[in-house]
Amino acid sequence: MAHKLADELLREILSPPLLVSDAMFEHTGDVSPFSKVEKSAADVLLVCKRWMRLATPSLLHTVVVRSMPQARALSSMIKRNPEFGTYIRRLRVEGSYGNYILDAVSAAPHITALCLTLTVWSDVKVDGLVKSLALIDPTRVILTLAPKKALKNKNHDALVAALCKQLKFWSRLVRLSYSTI
To answer: Which residues is 144 bridged to in the sheet?
Structure first.
């Protein structure tokens, strides 16, 4: 029966389970709400090629990166299909993932909201994340997951310095939110 539905109608049916609420996206508590997700909404894309084609823009509207494998997969996907980057409107990065984030942001000219953790470990590379800040001009920035005793190291300091420097260049920024820093 679904094969008889117009693409526009099927897209409207498939989109709701793929969308991330503003409350979840902007959550600034100690524990990420995405750490509790048991099933992937992306499973909808596995049904058939038509569903994948119609639902991919909704899935990529909000991208949440919480691990190195996710960052690698996002980078690889966007390198194979650069048009996928144009679907990204909100990006939440919970960590620093080398140049993988830079690869994704380089192909994502429409990012309007950035949720970023300032908790970065001393053994990770922040260069890609720092460079990606200059490629976006968001309207909202949410700084999150900073522990009460912020983890201080040269990578953390470099990220904070880059963020502070970039703030003055974000001409569309209307809202900056942060948790306890």
So the answer is: 117
Token pair belonging to 146: 């900073």
Strand partners, 114: 91, 141
Pick 33 or 169 by higher pLDDT: 169
pLDDT at 43 over 70: yes
Identity at 39, one-letter amino acid code: K
Tokens of 67: 């691990």
Q: How far is CA 51 from the centre of its chain?
A: 22
Q: How many CB atoms lie within 10 A of CB 165?
A: 12
Q: Got the DSSP string for 25-86?
A: HT--SSS-GGGG--S-GGGGGGS-HHHHHHHHHHHHHEEEE-SHHHHHHHHHHHHH-GGGGG
pTM metric for this prediction? 0.89
The answer for residues whose C-beta is within 8 angstroms of residue 18's C-beta and 6 or more apart is: 41, 42, 44, 55, 58, 59, 61
From the CB of residue 96, how many other CB atoms can be counted at a distance below 10 Å? 26
Which one-letter amino acid corresponds to residue 119?
T
Q: 180: buried, middle or exposed (CB in 10 Å: 19+, 13-18, 0-12)?
A: exposed
| Dihedral over Cα of 6, 78, 75, 79: its sign | positive
pLDDT, averaged across the chain: 87
